[in-house]
Write a structure and sequence with these properties.
Elements lengths: L7 E5 L3 H13 L4 E5 L3 H12 L10 E4 L10 E4 L15 H17 L5 E4 L4 H12 L6 E3 L3 H15 L6 E2 L18 E2 L2 E2 H7 L9 H19 L4 H15 L4 E9 L10 E10 L2 E5 L6 H21 L4
Parallel strand pairs: 1-2, 1-4, 2-3, 4-5, 5-6
Antiparallel strand pairs: 7-8, 8-9, 10-11, 11-12
Helix pairs in contact: 1-8, 3-4, 4-9, 5-7, 5-8
The chain binds nicotinamide-adenine-dinucleotide (NAD).
Length: 321
């Protein structure tokens, strides 16, 4: 007899980001079963039907339905995208008070279901909420991640792709730290078509006279705000990113990706009890080995600044634990 494991992904919160993430997962046929939970159950039912209606044209059949917290028990991945609708002009930290009121009961329900898979936090401020989720659920550190700067890294690559008119996937490197204003690019980690990106720019100075590393970093940092001002919010980029993380976990792809993870004394990063993004090996068990990026002094000080900012905001909600 064939024994098969039915992979299940649960998405909690089916607003713009949750719905787009569900779409990305279904179109790629990443799991066997997708369960949608929303505090307005009709919205989850409607989205499930809407997604099902494309079944004849997707790569693979995915069973899709509205569910409830009990469905988390046997889930491989739970993705939390519930939160207050981000307002144009508002920073992610300004969402914290409203976000914790929404996310805390959801985390309690996930914990009480007996869930023992990988929890992916997407709601903002994502580093603070990932730390809170780790504490609240009691899951092992390897099983709690935030989407973190996986999105910002993809944004940085998209911007370089746009500038050079080459495939963004030719870029290797990371945005690290907070998913927010203090994020940064350690440029020494960024390579492109077989050389450092810094070297690539120098080699093509006349073609890219107006392009600087600082400029690319700032465009990357501001990209979310720009999209919000243009179309009211972001959803497609984060959806592709989260689906990519889910694929890496479900298919045990063992990619090295920058996600928000508990930092606990690794290498020279020298931080504890804080969630920030660093490149880590991600596989079916969650977060594995860290990569030692050998940050220079100025990069380390930027990393510590991110840690300080995130930790200060964690302190504001610590009394809820
Ligand atoms: N990490 C990232 O890179 C990233 C990118 C974009 C958005 N986000 C975050 O994702 C979250 C959702 O953004 P969105 O644009 O989809 O917002 P949205 O308003 O479209 O959707 C919010 C969802 O939260 C649910 N919700 C609201 N109040 C609730 C409550 N009291 N209990 C349970 N569920 C509740 C809603 O039903 C809805 O499903 C926000 O926190 C946003 O900041 C994160």
């Amino acid at each position: 007899m064939v024994t098969s494991h039915r992979s299940r992904v649960v998405i909690a919160g089916t607003g713009s980001v949750g719905a787009a993430t569900a779409g990305a997962i279904v179109l790629q046929g990443l799991c066997d079963e997708l369960v949608l939970i929303n505090h307005n159950p009709d919205k989850a039912s409607g989205l499930a039907m809407d997604l099902m209606d494309g079944s004849d044209y997707t790569g693979r059949f995915v069973s899709i339905r509205r569910g409830d917290w009990a469905d988390c028990r046997d889930a491989d991945i739970v993705i939390v995208t519930a939160g207050p609708k981000p307002k144009p002009g508002e920073t992610r930290f300004q969402e914290l008070g409203a976000a914790i009121d929404i996310v805390d009961p959801i985390l309690c329900a996930i914990r009480d279901s007996g869930f023992d898979g990988i929890l992916i936090m997407v709601s903002n401020p994502v580093d603070v909420l990932s730390w809170f989720a780790w504490k609240r659920t009691g899951l092992p550190r390897a099983q709690v991640i935030g989407s973190g700067t996986a999105l910002d890294t993809s944004r940085m690559k998209a911007i370089i792709g746009d500038i050079t008119r080459l495939d963004p996937r030719m870029v290797s490197g990371y945005v690290i730290g907070e998913h927010g204003d203090s994020q940064f690019v350690p440029w020494s980690t960024v390579s492109f078509v077989g050389k450092s990106f810094t070297q690539y720019l120098q080699d093509n100075q006349s073609r890219y006279a107006d392009i600087t590393l600082d400029g690319i970093e700032e465009w990357t940092r501001r990209r979310g705000l720009l999209i919000k001002s243009l179309r009211g919010g972001t959803s497609q980029g984060i959806a592709a990113t989260v689906a990519g993380l889910a694929r890496t976990i479900l298919w045990d792809e063992r990619r090295v990706v920058p996600v928000s993870t508990l930092i606990d004394g690794e290498y020279e990063y020298d931080e504890h009890d804080v969630f920030l993004s660093l490149p880590v090996a991600l596989n079916a068990d969650g977060v594995g080995d860290f990569v030692d990026l050998h940050l220079d002094e100025s990069e380390l000080s930027k990393f510590h600044r991110s840690a300080r900012i995130v930790r200060e905001h964690c302190a504001m909600i610590a009394d809820r634990l």
